Amino acid sequence: MEKIEKIRDFDDQIFEEFKKYFLKLHKSNFSKKFPKTLHISNLFTTSTNFIKNSIFDCSETDDLFGVKILFRSLIEHYLRFQYVNFNWIKSKSDDSSEKYIQFTQAKEILDQIKSSMTARKQTNSKFEMPSWQQIFDDIPSLKKFTKKEIEIESVKYTYKNIIKTLKEIDKNSETGTTFWGNLIIEYSKLSAFVHGGAGAHNQMIIFNNEMKRMDEYARICGLAYQMAATVKLLTLIMIIQTDKKEFEEHYLALDKLIKKVNQI
């Protein structure tokens, strides 16, 4: 647990730095020019931070299943943020962020409608697809799109298609030799813990050894720390494109703290 305590100490320092600049974000030029991108970045800053803290807590209570399930969730939140960040870097506009907000929400509503239809068809084979009006009620801005356009665009925001886009960042990620590749492979392996696969139970047997389990907790906590902090760091990289003088010092401080975990 000594390694996890050190990681928590570094994480506390990250949080102290975060408090110094967070309130300034909404007064920045970036906030005025790219409000939707900043909004999504703040949402992922919050979600990755909560998941990371839960990973720390589960590690300290020796809850391997909890750690593994949470780590899979953290990977997906992290990769989705990277997708938003990557698209902003390419476009330098709020358009891609607006589409992300619109169509990920539309995808969730579509999935709920289809699940409802599947459940109803169990008892009524003639049950028809309910009205799309729910989507338009919840997201009025989508009224300018056809049903087909919404379905096609929504598919772009599935995990698999997000990964395809992110591979533009690292063409070698398929080999599994890079950070991207390793994350994608780990995400797949962790599926067993979420879905009750045999691999999860096999892992529990492998990690029956306490020393191995402690090493695994330290490894995942280190990665969780870096990933949650990187969301903050990449947000600052976007911010300093318009507000360098105000935020550069915070970026440099976070960058230094993130690298400290490699010294443990």
Describe the structure.
The chain is mostly helical. The chain has one domain. Helix content is 78%, strand content 0%. It is built from 13 helices and no strands. Helix 1 runs antiparallel to helix 13, helix 3 packs antiparallel against helix 12 and helix 12 packs antiparallel against helix 13. The longest helix has 30 residues. 28% of the residues are buried. The mean pLDDT is 88.
Task: Give a topology summary.
Blueprint lengths: L1 H24 L3 H5 L1 H26 L3 H28 L3 H27 L11 H6 L8 H9 L3 H8 L12 H11 L1 H5 L2 H9 L3 H30 L4 H17 L4
Helix pairs in contact: 1-12, 1-13, 3-4, 3-12, 4-5, 4-8, 4-9, 4-12, 5-7, 12-13
Structure, briefly:
By secondary structure, this protein is an all-alpha fold. It has helices at 2-25, 29-33, 35-60, 64-91, 95-121, 133-138, 147-155, 159-166, 179-189, 191-195, 198-206, 210-239, 244-260.
